[in-house]
Amino acid sequence: xxxxxxxxxxxxxxxxxxxxxxxxxxxxxxxxxxxxxxxxxxxxxxxxxxxxxxxxxxxxxxxxxxxxxxxxxxxxxxxxxxxxxxxxxxxxxxxxxxxxxxxxxxxxxxxxxxxxxxxxxxxxxxxxxxxxxxxxxxxxxxxxxxxxxxxxxxxxxxxxxxxxxxxxxxxxxxxxxxxxxxxxxxxxxxxxxxxxxxxxxxxxxxxxxxxxxxxxxxxxxxxxxxxxxxxxxxxxxxxxxxxxxxxxxxxxxxxxxxxxxxxxxxxxxxxxxxxxxxxxxxxxxxxxxxxxxxxxxxxxxxxxxxxxxxxxxxxxxxxxxxxxxxxxxxxxxxxxxxxxxxxxxxxxxxxxxxxxxxxxxxxxxxxxxxxxxxxxxxxxxxxxxxxxxxxxxxxxxxxxxxxxxxxxxxxxxxxxxxxxxxxxxxxxxxxxxxxxxxxxxxxxxxxxxxxxxxxxxxxxxxxxxxxxxxxxxxxxxxxxxxxxxxxxxxxxxxxxxxxxxxxxxxxxxxxxxxxxx
Amino acid sequence: xxxxxxxxxxxxxxxxxxxxxxxxxxxxxxxxxxxxxxxxxxxxxxxxxxxxxxxxxxxxxxxxxxxxxxxxxxxxxxxxxxxxxxxxxxxxxxxxxxxxxxxxxxxxxxxxxxxxxxxxxxxxxxxxxxxxxxxxxxxxxxxxxxxxxxxxxxxxxxxxxxxxxxxxxxxxxxxxxxxxxxxxxxxxxxxxxxxxxxxxxxxxxxxxxxxxxxxxxxxxxxxxxxxxxxxxxxxxxxxxxxxxxxxxxxxxxxxxxxxxxxxxxxxxxxxxxxxxxxxxxxxxxxxxxxxxxxxxxxxxxxxxxxxxxxxxxxxxxxxxxxxxxxxxxxxxxxxxxxxxxxxxxxxxxxxxxxxxxxxxxxxxxxxxxxxxxx
Lengths: 517, 374
Hints:
The complex is a heterodimer of chains A (517) and B (374).
Chain A (H helix, E strand, L loop, with lengths): L7 E12 L2 E12 L3 E5 L6 H8 L7 E6 L8 H5 L2 E4 L11 H11 L4 H15 L14 H13 L5 E4 L8 H16 L3 E6 L2 H5 L3 E6 L2 E6 L1 H6 L5 E5 L5 H10 L3 E7 L2 E6 L8 H4 L6 E4 L4 H8 L9 H5 L15 E10 L2 E11 L3 E6 L6 H8 L7 E6 L2 E2 L4 H5 L2 E4 L11 H11 L4 H14 L15 H13 L5 E4 L8 H6 L5 E6 L3
Parallel strand pairs in A: 3-7, 3-8, 5-6, 6-7, 16-21, 19-20, 20-21
Antiparallel strand pairs in A: 1-2, 1-4, 8-9, 10-12, 10-13, 11-12, 14-15, 14-17, 17-18
Helix pairs in contact in A: 3-5, 4-5, 5-6, 15-16, 15-17
Chain B lengths: L4 H17 L1 H21 L7 E7 L4 H12 L3 E6 L2 H10 L4 E5 L3 H7 L7 E4 L4 H24 L22 H30 L2 H6 L5 H30 L8 H26 L2 H18 L12 H7 L3 H15 L3 H25 L8
Parallel strand pairs in B: 1-2, 1-3
Antiparallel strand pairs in B: 3-4
């Protein structure tokens, strides 16, 4: 190994952990260096949080060894905690305390007093640009400001090691970039930073990455080296005539292709072996279609490490019968908003919004908080009366026949609307029940959803304890139980697992709103 | 287990901000106690009243009249007289009288006949067994009196007169013993219910994870929860004592410092139980449910505050020894009504001390330093 031992801040050897007999981490070996940001990358449920908690001495490992700054986090916890900053997923802030009170609390807890405290507060408040908000309650801060305050509290006492657990969840893109800049400068100063994320584009920026999947380490090293290994295997199929999703499905059936996704008007493909192209004619993408090599992404490499992406035929699509529109409904305008306006007193939440959504289209509604996405959504679902203009779903006016229109709509709310203290099986049973399924049909519908969304291992677990990605899957499964013709998703958070995104192609019309990306 | 005063003070300050800024904790600590004191002080009345009794007199004879007169003269009975049996039965059904005495038309004749041939009928409302028992025993007493008078042939001579004196509560105002008892219920709510929320809240909001990653120690964590809520409990106790003595006129015969010691020991148990529930469940809703069942209900039902422990079945009596509120109620009632009766107070203080040590010790043992237990 080329790196000097003194460069290594955290050392994992055959580190394993299990929860009640369920293995969460399988014999991990890795070294985490100082002076760079190391990305801890993987989908939900990969074991990222467990690993961070082990490092922070919050859990006791079941097997293997772990050394942080040369110390065992369990036996030498007291010594370690003065050198370690750990920011949990919810930032660990007291929402009923002000910014300054939060800082003061953590300064006292970390032993930062006197002149050092004054200096630290000034530096951190300037660094995080929170100086103007010191008297504001932490609960009243925006997501980005909470995250920065959380970081400031973590940085008190100048730790040598910084552990950040998904610091960018629920945070807008500008704040994400700011945080990245701050943490980069800390790493440049010699701090060891471990940044956990499920965004692969974020991971590409890290000095090194640990790629995790289902508790196993798939790769550790520089992201660039990993992307370089994919050279020549990432292609863009452009000039497509006809339905892009059909082309993608045909491409994914080719043995040469291991993964693919829609990208704007083109289709992005990843090849099994560089140079072995799929037969263009068999893709039936039209006469002008052409394949071009593009720069590989970390995502391509990750999918390759996992042995390929989901196949072209989504299990959900196989299960869901194709949505058929009743006669008289214009396939080019399944969902229509015309001059759609909603006022709350003097405040205009949506102002003359116009759009139409075709059959088979995924229509994204983008915008920052307060842009009017949710208001539009609620009007389209008949949950909020329209002030003026018209909202129509399959020709039904939401103003006049809201309940009829609602029967055609599957709706997945921002907060997932799952019963967190019921098990996965009980949630599925309940939602199939309220959609009027019973007996054999209910059992079949539940069994289908369990198979389609791979929920089998989680059936007995409470919905509240599921990893985020699986919560999403369960919520989608519950929303789709009725086989609607339209599907509405409102989802401000990220964490779209690829298979769920691929599955969405099956629904006649889906929508979602996202603040970022 | 080391304690840094700086960290402890910081945590206590944080806890106090949270108490002051949470309207529900102020409501539970200061508004609810006053409400409960007034409900128990004025709403509930266990004083013995005159029992409403109906008399059906079908016999106009001298013996019957004398019996009815004796009944009407009783200080415990409010009698209403009628000749119609069916009208009285209806009044009993409507609950307007609690019992009916029927004196049949042949009563005087049968009395004269002798050999116990005379009977009177007593109907009582068995739907309220307690009242029915009262009626029956009052009736018994009156009947005995009538017999005595009849045998001696004259009103009882003043050979013996009873001059009852009720010690400790001379006017037998039930408020004087209900209010001290209700203070124990109030302190249970403040001690156990409020604290059952506080540790669970840290788990639910994810702040516990952040706290545990700082150099904070187990003792600091525990004390930072106990001290602010102990002070809050003592403030509520002071308020209860002021309201009870100044507003409601309940006498306080014991000294304040003994009251202080008794309350402190009881709060030790209540806080310990609440924190233990909060620490082990890590869920505010479940912890509050448990606190209601494990602390609040026993404090009302098994503490002897309303329901006399000695009239409970033996098995239930045994359970009451485990309820700290039992000792607190006994100590409070003694302190308020009788003053410092040391044999009573000492035994209660001893048990309160044991109970506080038990619950706080258990909580300290269960307070984690990691996410996965100890």
